[in-house]
Structures are given as C-alpha cells and as structure tokens.
Amino acid sequence: MNRQIIAGVIEWAEEIGDPSLDALRAGGVATAARWAAQRGVSMSSHPRHLAVIVDAAGGEGEIDRRAMFGAQVAATLRAQRAHEADRVLADAPVRVLPEQVTDGSNEVRVVELNLPDGSTSVGYHKPFDGIESDVAAAFGDTMPAQPMREVAAWHVARLLGPSVSRYVAPSVLREVSYPPDEFYSRERIRTGSLSRHVPGASLSLTWEHEVPAEQVDTLAFFDAVIGNQDRHRGNVFWDAQTRSLGAFDHGYAFARSAEEDLLNDSLFLEKRIADGRAPLTKDEIEALRAFSARIGEVTPLLDSDRAENMRRRVETMLRTRRLPDVHVL
Ligand SMILES: Nc1ncnc2c1ncn2[C@@H]1O[C@H](COP(=O)(O)OP(=O)(O)OP(=O)(O)O)[C@@H](O)[C@H]1O
Ligand SMILES: [Mg+2]
After folding, report:
1. Residue whose CA is closest, atom 9 of ligand 1?
2. 233, 203 Cβ separation under 8 angstroms
3. CA-angle at 3, arms to 2 and 6, nearest 5°
4. Atom of ligand 1 at shortest distance to CA of 230?
5. Out of 38-52, 59-73, 135-149, 174-188, which region has the weakest mean confidence (pLDDT)?
6. Cα(106) to centroid of ligand 2, in Å?
7. Which of its termini does the chain have fewer beta carbons within 10 Å around, N or C?
8. Dist. CA 74–CA 38, nearest whole Å
9. What is d(CA 272, CA 294) in angstroms, rounded to the nearest whole number?
10. Atom of ligand 1 nearest to the CA of 235
11. Ligand 1: which residue has its CA nearest to atom 16?
12. Out of 230-239, 251-260, 273-282, which region has the weakest mean confidence (pLDDT)?
C-alpha cells in the first residue's frame, strides 16, 4: 500500500512539474508524506483511511484513501486544462485580499484575479490545510478531498450542459501565494479550490416566492446527480438584479450510501418533490444520458466509492425517470 501512496504523490508532483520529483522517486513513503504535508495534506495513518467498497456484483473490497489522493489531485489538474475558461481561472495572476469570510466552517479567502482581458474578478480559495477537520470527520472524510469535489461538481455541471452550468460557480484547483500574516513571517504557497464569484446573497426565508420554479428544478436535478449533502440557504446565492441563482460550496457533495451520509440533502430537491415534479423532463433524461456516456471524465477526481455511488445514482434516475427521494440513494 505504501508503494501506491508514493505513486499517487509522484503523479501529482509530475502534473505540476515539481522540481523535487527526482527526490520523490528516490525516496520512500516518508519523503512522499513530507512533500504532501507541505501542500496541506496529512498522510498520517488512521484506521478510517480504509474504506469498504461494494462492487456491482455485491462483492466487498477495501480501499485506502491515501493511496488514491495524489492521483485524484493529478486528475483534477488534468481535467481543468481541457477547457479554456478553466485554464484562465487556474492561471490568472491572483492576490489574496485582506477581507475575511466568516460565514463558513472552513477557511475560505477572497482573492482578486487579473484576467487576460485586463479586467479583475473575485474568487474564493479554499485551501487543503484550512479544512475544518471535525466537520470533515462528521461527513466521513479522512482525507481533505473537499477541494477536488468542488472542482468535480463543476465538471458535472458542465457535462450536464449550459442549462445547468449557468447556475453553478466554476471551480479549479490551484496554488495561491499567501502574504505573511500575524502567524507566518513568510509568504506561503497553499493549494486548494478556487471558485468564481457568483453575485447575490443567501436565499431569504421566503425564497419560494421569488425563485422561478424552472431554476429550483434545475438545481434540484443538479443536486440529485452530485449527491449533494449540504445545499442549505447559505450555499446558494440569489441575485435579485438578474433574478438568477448561483450555486457554490460543493465540498460535501458526492455522498456515499453509507450510514453517516445525508443523501440528497437539498432544499431544491425537497421543494421540487413536494410540488409534485419528481419525474425528470425529456431534456433532463437526454442530459443524463449524455453525462452517463462521459462520466469517466469526472470519476478519477473522486474517491472510488463516491464515484461508484454517482454511477449508481445516474443509472437509477435513468431507469426510474424520476428524481431520487430526499435522503435516499
Ligand atoms: N463562488 C462564490 N461566490 C460567492 N460567494 C462565495 C463563493 N464561494 C464562497 N463564497 C462565500 O464564502 C463563504 C464560505 O464559502 P463556502 O460555503 O464554500 O465554505 P464552507 O466553509 O465550506 O461552508 P459550510 O460551512 O457551508 O460548509 C460562503 O458562505 C459565501 O459567503
Ligand atoms: Mg458553505
């Protein structure tokens, strides 16, 4: 298993062209662990790193999340290079702003991006080493995989087509240089997800009266596909000017069918089902078929048990032609 862990870390280092590649190849697991730790990823041993997976035939197997981790990072970096807009987000010069985000459980920093056309834009950086580990443990995580899920959710939105992706914040994985602060005397490079700013504010208590049913239904569909566990009123913005939703914070999407997971926990899914619109539309079935054919573009970014659950969710939705019930796979 140690060899697999090292191989995953080397794949990640190759992907970013890290100069310590030779040392990593020559070194053992301690070298790989140190390299990963410098990027905010702890490789410490813990029995919960082992996850049980059930294959399609019902057979059980074990996977070590640490062994997959480096390869997931590498796959994420690779996937985002396939799209011009993502490359821009991943490569644009970026500056951490002093502004602090206080309404989340993880460390999230506001950054300013300088885009190639000379304009600036705001983004939100969620570094691996700023993830709140108690919350992560409550969601059954043993590795800080949130940033990869943020990016994977964006790729799912894109693969479902523009009618879905227009309501979802684009997200990439990238390094950002943090200036010295009260705790660190030197600049630090931190890796994490970077999502593009969506305008607006959290949904009001009476959001049902404002948001058009078509947008509710679209995000219900999206949340069902990504197996969202965390779509509360604070993880989506409503822009009253353009009358449009903007969804972000997909760090805890891609639920497994494990006991501790809150499957399909989404206010949009609840609303759409309560209003009697659980059957999928023709367009949704078509989008799901197209997604199913290209699902392999997203699964390498995810833990294999989470990816397997998404495959099953998509198959079930295509077979039943309806949304899953809330809290059911
Ligand atoms: N793409 C975005 N557009 C606009 N605001 C954003 C975006 N991403 C993050 N934010 C702001 O930063 C806050 C924290 O981000 P986010 O919800 O992703 O973090 P979190 O710590 O994972 O939250 P939670 O506690 O819900 O798990 C959000 O509540 C929102 O105010
Ligand atoms: Mg949040």
Report:
1. 124
2. yes
3. 90
4. 26
5. 38-52
6. 8
7. N
8. 16
9. 27
10. 17
11. 249
12. 251-260
Tell me how many helices (H) and strands (E) the chain has: 12, 10
For residues 311 and 288, give the distance between their C-alpha atoms in angstroms, rounded to a whole number. 11
CA distance 314 to 291: 9
The ligand minimizing its distance to the Cα of 202 is 1
Instruction: Tell me whether residue 89 is exposed, middle or buried, using C-beta atoms within 10 angstroms of its C-beta: 0 to 12, 13 to 18, 19 or more.
Output: buried
Q: Give the distance (Å) from ligand 1 centre to CA of residue 167.
A: 15
Phi and psi at 280, nearest 5°, equal -75, 150
For the question of whether the overall pTM of this predicted structure is more than 0.70, the answer is yes
Does residue 214 contact residue 313 with C-beta atoms inside 8 Å?
Answer: no
Q: Does position 53 have pLDDT exceeding 80, yes or no?
A: no
* Among 262, 259, 195, 258, CA closest to 227: 262
Pocket of ligand 1 (CB under 6 A): 101, 103-106, 108, 124, 169, 195-198, 234-235, 237, 248-249, 251
Amino acid at the residue 195: S
CB 107 within 8 A of CB 127: yes
Rounded to whole angstroms, how far apart are CA atoms 42 and 87?
Answer: 27
Burial zone of 305 (CB within 10 Å; 0-12 exposed, 13-18 middle, 19+ buried): buried
